[in-house]
Amino acid sequence: MKQDTGHMLVAAVLRGGVGLGGTLLAVGLVMGIATGDVSTPALRLSDLFAGGPLHARFELAGILVCGATPGAGVLALIGARLRERDWGAAATATVVIAILVVGMIIGHV
Amino acid sequence: MTVGLLALVGLVLLGLLSGSLGALVGIGGGVVIVPALTILFGFDIKTAIAASLVAVVVTSITASGRYVRLGLVNTRLALTLELATALGGLTGGFVGTLVPSGVLSVVFGVLLVVTGILSLRGRGEHGEQVGVAGVEQAGWETHRPLGGAFWDERTGSMVSYTARRLPIGEGVSFVAGLASGLLGVGGGVLKVPAMNLGMDVPVKVAAATSSFMIGVTATAGLSVYLGRGFVHPGVAAPLAFGVLTGALIGARFAGSASPRALRTILGVILVVVAVVMVVRGVG
What we know:
The structure holds 2 protein chains of 2 kinds.
Chain A: E1 2-3, H1 6-35, H2 54-83, H3 87-108
Chain B: H1 5-25, H2 30-40, H3 45-70, H4 75-95, H5 101-120, E1 128-129, E2 140-143, E3 146-152, E4 157-162, H6 166-183, H7 188-199, H8 203-227, H9 233-254, H10 259-282
Helix pairs in contact in B: 1-3, 1-8, 1-9, 2-3, 3-8, 3-9, 4-6, 4-8, 5-7, 5-10, 6-7, 7-8
């Protein structure tokens, strides 16, 4: 049994995502309440930089950061496993990412 | 669509409850959030599922950020099972139009009743203390066979374990992925009992590992809902903010909670969720 050096890296990625995503969500919420704007338009990814109220775009940015964080965690794991020369675990993680990407592409079509 | 101040407070409270319970027992809370948003708040089903997926991801990254650091997440086990879940999710996307969702809801509900009763009956104390008290290094894993060790805050000792009967875990994870693709739920309610009761993984590791997995699974679904414009930040953001706070609280208490208490909470949630699923399926 050996200590897993990848854990600290993955934990840092996840905590970074929570910190940044949570901050953006909080800023958006406070802006919405402060301006009295309680509209909740449905936004697409493309609305992030243009379209919709500013507070909603901050909230969308927070959601995007949170949504990207699990994938970033798996990518960090792939890096850690490659560094440890644990080819099997690295391959498993890569296949997981590949299946998710295929699912996303199919879902968007 | 507008969300009043009262509804906003309600969304934060729903998130707090869902996030704290979800972090404790390794579920995302989608099976609770979706009915609550549609029945109590009156949102349409697509808005509810999109907001629920955001909540599942936030519960996952908030709780598992702490669990990974503590060495409670077995990342090798998580990704091995996630392979089956991802394939199940992909299959669910293909066959979604062929299987009536009502039928699947009832089947899913019955499955949950069985696992809920098994959890409440108290089986599932796994792992053995390995007598290296004072060693608090996190993140010990083995890969042949899959297993590891973690520092148990409650007993003040290292506990080692081996994951057995991998095909059971793979099979249930595939079904969880299938349910995720068809019903818009995370599948944690199936994965935790499968790991704990089926694979002899200690409940704390099962909950933490499931917590890590559900975020990865939900990301794929969330991207589709984002791409199609079903995400209402005004609904998802207050829910996610509540979830984030709740998951931080839940994850803080999970390390020192007793396995029996965790299994009891999980069992009660499973039975309640099962009733909701069967009612939805029949209705």
